Amino acid sequence: MSIWQIAAQTAVCLLLIYPSFAAAQDAGAKLGPSLILSLDQDALFAKSKYGQLLRAQLSAEAAEVEAESRRLDAELAAEERSLTQKRAQMTPESFAPLAAAFDEKVQRLRAEREAAAADLRARETAGRQVFFETAAQVIGDFMVERGAVVIINKDAIIVSLSSLDVTDAVIARLDAALEIGAAPAP
Asked: Within the chain, which residues score under 70 in pLDDT?
């Protein structure tokens, strides 16, 4: 039996056991405390002040890197046109060192661009790690306060009541716990 068949049977059982489940879902009814809560980890990061500030900071830096790349591309294109014009007036032996130097410059700049992009990705990863390390304590405290035994990622859920999703409440607590006032420094 595949995991999808098991999931489908579980969903059917839930609907049979709890006949008012679908109506409660539509009405957004709160059924009281639950042992299981859900959380959207991506939304937790993206909607938090920390996540928004980190992304804004990294986006601004990425825009600067992109602008520098465009400027360098224009310079390299102009340099290449100049070399092409010189080539017609030079012997192959005298042109070869100029072409090699230009190729070396292009390769170096390409490597620098790739390193800058990798640095931005690494800083976002580090920032997410810092965020989720702090979030773990806040989420754990929230779970205990709500009397839950587990909080699972919303992506792992096939069917649930919207009242089980505690993402927004945890975001509010995380924003307060992290006291975001300036851009984060991962």
From this structure: 1-32, 158-162, 180-186
